[in-house]
Amino acid sequence: MVILTPLSQQFTTGFVPLYPAASFTDSRTRMEYHHTSEMNGVVADYHSMCNEPERNGLCREEKHSEDAADSNNLCHIEKAYSTILSELGEDVDREGLLRTPLRAAKAMQFLTKGYKETTQDILNDAIFDENHEEMVIVKDIDLFSLCEHHLVPFYGKAHIAYLPNKKVVGLSKLARIVEIYSRRLQVQERLTKQIASAISEALEPAGVAVVIEAAHLCMVMRGVQKMNASTVTSVMLGRFHDDPEVRKEFLALTMKK
Amino acid sequence: MEHSKQTQYSSNEKKDTGDGGSVLNGHFDGMVKRPAGGTARAAAAPQAPGAESGSHRAATSVMESWKEERTRSVEDNEMSLPSLAAAYTTILRGLGEDPQRQGLLKTPWRAATAMQFFTKGYQEKIIDVLNDAIFDEDHDEMVIVKDIDMFSMCEHHLVPIFGRVHIGYLPNKRVLGLSKLARIVEIYSRRLQVQERLTKQIAVAITEALQPTGVGVVIEATHMCMVMRGVQKMNSKTVTSTMLGVFREDPKTRDEFLTLIRS
User: Fold this and answer.
1) What's the CATH code of the domain at B197?
2) Is A64 annotated in the active site?
3) Separation CA B18–CA A187 (nearest Å)
4) Chain A CB contacts of B99 below 8 Å
5) Which of A249, B114, B128, B246 is the most exposed, fewest CB within 10 Å of its CB?
6) Total number of domains constituting chain B
7) What segments bear the compositional bias annotation Polar residues (chain B) (predicted)?
8) Which of 95-134 (A) contact B at CB < 8 A?
9) Which structural domain range is residue B101 located in?
10) CA B130 to CA A171: how far, in whole Å?
11) CA of A24: which chain B residue's CA is closest?
């Protein structure tokens, strides 16, 4: 079932990975929650466990090694892009492409920066006690993500609503949660669920609803090449799930043009 | 379009220092790099890449741009796939992802094939696309094909560019099959591009194929490299245009073209 060439073969095809596999363990364990979104809550705890000792003065060394690992990774990604450019038949020495591997590597790191961020980091300060139980909606949040199957962008809008249960969250934090989860290699269904779960766990509201409508360039630029198709996914939790009237109100307020 | 206009255009190209052959994706100068290759590439081997030779080449290569040899073939694609996939696996690891998880298992291959599709313009020649569809027709009014959807890749960040192309030309006894205009757009856009160069390449290809009285090409596109990263300006659009022949000289013709593509 595994299609990729194993590491040993990679050496013989002339492509030499220069990194020891071990350097990736840290990032990989941080990554694990990503593909089992049910583990969201567990990983938030794991992360806070990891972060605590750092605050005791070991943080500088930790950060230094993290930066070193980052620039190491950047170097490998850059070399990979150089290979890609030459394999595509382009001339890597022409002026326009001279620094492209570096730019592309940095761009890719930016587009996947969500892996390094956690909901805990951004939400901790901005949850307020407020005696408000009516629907709060933040809609038309622009969203950009990368399809994990083709590494091609998909972009669209997210609409988020929640029914507070004595706790409200700073509005921009909803958009920041979208950013954290969307700046990753994603599948739209999982992205929607992760956003909903994150809000649910942080605020414990009476209900959360997330709707994402996006255009997938992997479908527009290649493959079926359907220009105007857009994909809509939604997750309804709590009262949005149980009560059709609440759901109807949400959809009426967000989906009208 | 008269020959003199073409040479004038090409001599402008020569002043384009620093770019050398890059006005034509540079591959005329640089395609020698690939180890495997047919006679086409071997023939190009003696040219050294570089600004001076590049700008020398620019003059003649502008003239012959649409007769150029392919840089890539279907067999090349198949041969490059394993190294492309290995490169993508490295990228996935470098980003901190786990290439062994279920969603990413075949991603390197899919991404490699997708990238080859996005650069399939390197495999195609204008001459293949155009040879049959040039017709003698006694028509000298403007012909416009607008709202041609265009998808390209930014050569600086390897991130998509998408938008619309509007093409107009004034035939000089010869007209072109309409879909061939869209195919010319496809050939040049499915490459690592800069929007300015793409616009010019399309205009020059039509000029060389038909020798019309004038050609106008307008592209409006959204650059994901500006929308998804960097300045992150969501609604920005970049508009570039190339006007050749009577479109450049006669403001009324140009106005007519621009009005018709706007409506």
Assistant:
1) 3.30.1130.10
2) no
3) 42
4) 4
5) B128
6) 2
7) 1-11
8) 95-97, 99-100, 103-105, 107-112, 115-116
9) 71-123
10) 56
11) B96
